[in-house]
Structure formats: C-alpha cells, structure tokens
C-alpha cells in the first residue's frame, strides 16, 4: 500500500512541471509539430514512468531471488559418497594406530617365533649368495667356504630341531604328523614355513657338495642342467610337504564332539583337487629338466676358422679357450658363453634367441619363495 502511494506522489510531482512546459511550447512550436507536444502528454509520461519503476522492481526481485538460490546451494551438505580412494585413505589413516598396537601385541606374543623366521630368511639369502658366487668363480672357487657353508646350514638345522624336539617337526619332511596339541592357523603357518625353509637348506647343501666334488667332471652346460634338475626336484618335493599339515588343519576343531562332519570332508576334497593341479605342473617342470639334462643339446658348433690365436672373446677379453660358434655366428669361449646362457637365453652380442625359454636356476640359485599350500 505504501509502495503505491509513493508511486502516485512521484507521478504528481512530475505532472505539474510537464503541464507548464507543454503550455509554453504551444505558443512557440508550429502546428506541424503538434505531435511532439502530444508526446509530452502527462498521461503518456506517467505510463512511461510507471513502466520504468515496475521494471526496476522486477529486476531487484530477480536479483534477490538469485542471491537466495546461491546461498541455498552453498549451504547444501557435501556429497555422501565422495569416492572410494579418499574413503580408503581416510580409513587407513584413522585405523593405522590400532593396527600398529595389534602388531606390537602379536610381536610380543610370538617374539621368539618371529626371531627364528628372521634368522631363516637372512640365512637363506646369504647362503644362496655365497653358493652362486662360488659357482661363478669356476676353478677359482674356494672349497673351504663351501664346506663352511654346508656345516653352518647343518648346524642351523640341528639346533632348530633340538629346540623343538618335543614337537618332532622333522616328521613333516617325511610326510608324518608332528606332535602338536592343536593344528590351528598359527601352528600351520609355523610348521609349513619352517619345513619348507629347512628343506631349501638341504637343497643348498646338495648343490654345494656337487660344486666341490663333481663340477670338474662335467661341462659348464651340463653343470647348469644338473643345478636346474636339483632345484626342480626340490620344488616338486616342497610341493608335497604341506599336504599332511594342511589335512590335519582342515580336520582340526577345538571341540571334536560338536565338530561338523561334512564340511571338513568337502574342504579336503577341494584342497586335493587344487593340489593335484599344482603337483602336475611341478612334475612337468621336473620332467623337462631331466629331458634337458639327458639330451644336452649344444649351444653352438666348433668354429672352422684356422687361425684363432688373435681372436679375443668379447666376454672375458682374453684369447679364446674352447671356442664355440653360436647360430648367430658370434664366437665366444665355451665357459664364458655357457655361464652367460645360465641366466639369459640370447646372444650377449646381438641378442639372438638361442633357445625359447629363459633358463631357470641354472646358475645354482635357490628359489626364495615359500610353499605355503
């Protein structure tokens, strides 16, 4: 109501001066310009003013409505699902202290076991490194270091079994049951890991004995095939060691009177099915290694060049000893190129494939993986 009264007052203030101007112009403007004077009619002028005022009010209302919409959008809560990545990162950040507390408690409860596991891993790493280094030295190898390595590993194994003498953990190596009160998850992991690592120690000892006594009796190519066969046999045997502990674990329950009868049977059947596939692959690798050992296809031929005295081996940069010509026509010392091909399957000069598959464990190394299942 007040807004309409203001508009009427504003119109009255404008109308009176306009009438005076119109009367004065009628005396000076000719009759032809009567239309100009009509444009200054108060009614027409009032309509123009009212339209301008209404447009201004509508513009103000529109601006006010837009500002209210923007404020409402800014006050809306954030999206409930910002994304999986930030949510996971936030969860890990908030739960890390509690996980750390649990790990410290677990370490305190099984400190002696963790210490033995750490000793096993460090021992295997350095034993494997020493053996591979001595094999690469060929005639310059130190038999004393190899004997000390064998003695150290055997003492390590003996001390371990003496500490856990009441559990008879050595039975696992010959597929018998260990003497444990309950075959729960922790005991299963402990027995499987220790048995697997100790058998790898025995494999390293066998390779070291072969390096000491029989290496000079065979060529380097045959030596690589023998090392590969020993390792693949070890992988096959290690594949069999966890079977008995796992079956005991599947059929173990805290309360034997109320234990289910059908669930362990089905779990055991599924385990055997999956295990047979693993054993099948291990047998195939073992047979392939034995086949390579028996066939022993040479890497190349003896070169027919008459004068080889001035030719240097690209690997050792010395005069050729027992030269061998690969199928890519590059000539090397037999020992040098065989040592190279124990790790690679291509020519060291032009990278031509000498055989399809990359060699495995021909350098005397032992697999660092653990056979958990």
Automatic annotation (TrEMBL):
Major subcellular location class: membrane
GO process annotations (BP): positive regulation of ERAD pathway
Superkingdom, taxonomy of origin: Eukaryota
Protein localization: Membrane
The keyword Zinc belongs to this UniProt entry's keyword annotation: yes
Pfam families from the UniProt entry: zf-C3HC4_2
Cross-referenced PROSITE patterns: ZF_RING_1 (PS00518), ZF_RING_2 (PS50089)
GO molecular function (one): ubiquitin protein ligase activity
Ranges of Low complexity composition bias in the record: 55-82
The RING-type domain, residue ranges: 313-351
Transmembrane segments: 106-126, 146-164, 188-214, 235-252, 264-283
Keywords recorded for this protein, A-Z: Membrane, Metal-binding, Transmembrane, Transmembrane helix, Ubl conjugation pathway, Zinc, Zinc-finger
Lipid bilayer topology: Multi-pass membrane protein
Keyword rRNA-binding: no
A GO cellular component annotation in the UniProt record: membrane
Region (Disordered): 55-86
InterPro entries registered for this protein in UniProt: RNFT1/2 (IPR044235), Znf_RING (IPR001841), Znf_RING/FYVE/PHD (IPR013083), Znf_RING_CS (IPR017907)
Descriptive protein name: RING-type domain-containing protein
Organism of origin: Brachionus calyciflorus
């Amino acid at each position: 109501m007040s807004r309409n009264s203001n508009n009427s007052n504003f119109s009255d203030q404008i109308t009176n001066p306009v009438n005076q101007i119109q009367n004065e112009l009628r005396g000076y403007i000719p009759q032809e310009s009567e239309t100009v004077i009509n444009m200054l009619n108060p009614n027409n002028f009032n309509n123009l003013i009212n339209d301008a005022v209404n447009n201004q009010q509508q513009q103000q209302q529109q601006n006010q409505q837009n500002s209210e919409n923007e404020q409402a959008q800014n006050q809306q809560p954030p999206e409930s699902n910002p994304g999986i990545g930030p949510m996971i990162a936030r969860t890990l950040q908030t739960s890390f202290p509690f996980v750390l507390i649990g790990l410290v408690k677990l370490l305190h409860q099984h400190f002696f076991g963790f210490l033995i596991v750490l000793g096993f891993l460090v021992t295997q790493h350095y034993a494997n490194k020493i053996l591979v280094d001595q094999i690469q030295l060929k005639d310059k190898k130190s038999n004393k270091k190899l004997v000390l390595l064998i003695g150290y590993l055997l003492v390590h194994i003996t001390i371990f079994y003496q500490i856990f003498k009441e559990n008879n953990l050595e039975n696992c190596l010959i597929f018998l049951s260990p003497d444990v009160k309950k075959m729960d998850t922790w005991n299963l992991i402990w027995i499987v890991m220790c048995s697997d690592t100790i058998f790898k120690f025995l494999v390293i000892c066998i390779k070291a004995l072969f390096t000491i006594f029989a290496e000079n009796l065979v060529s380097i190519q045959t030596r690589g095939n023998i090392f590969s066969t020993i390792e693949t046999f070890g992988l096959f045997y290690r594949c069999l060691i966890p079977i008995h502990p796992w079956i005991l674990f599947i059929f173990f329950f805290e309360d034997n009177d109320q234990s289910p009868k059908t669930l362990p049977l089905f779990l055991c059947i599924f385990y055997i099915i999956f295990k047979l596939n693993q054993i099948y692959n291990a047998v195939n690798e073992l047979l392939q290694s034995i086949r390579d050992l028996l066939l022993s296809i040479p890497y190349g031929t003896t070169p027919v060049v008459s004068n080889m005295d001035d030719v240097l081996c690209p690997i050792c940069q010395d005069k050729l000893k027992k030269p061998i010509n690969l199928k890519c026509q590059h000539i090397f010392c037999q020992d040098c190129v065989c040592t190279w091909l124990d790790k690679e399957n291509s020519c060291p000069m032009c990278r031509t494939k000498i055989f399809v598959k990359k060699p495995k464990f021909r350098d005397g190394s032992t697999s660092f993986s653990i056979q958990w299942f």
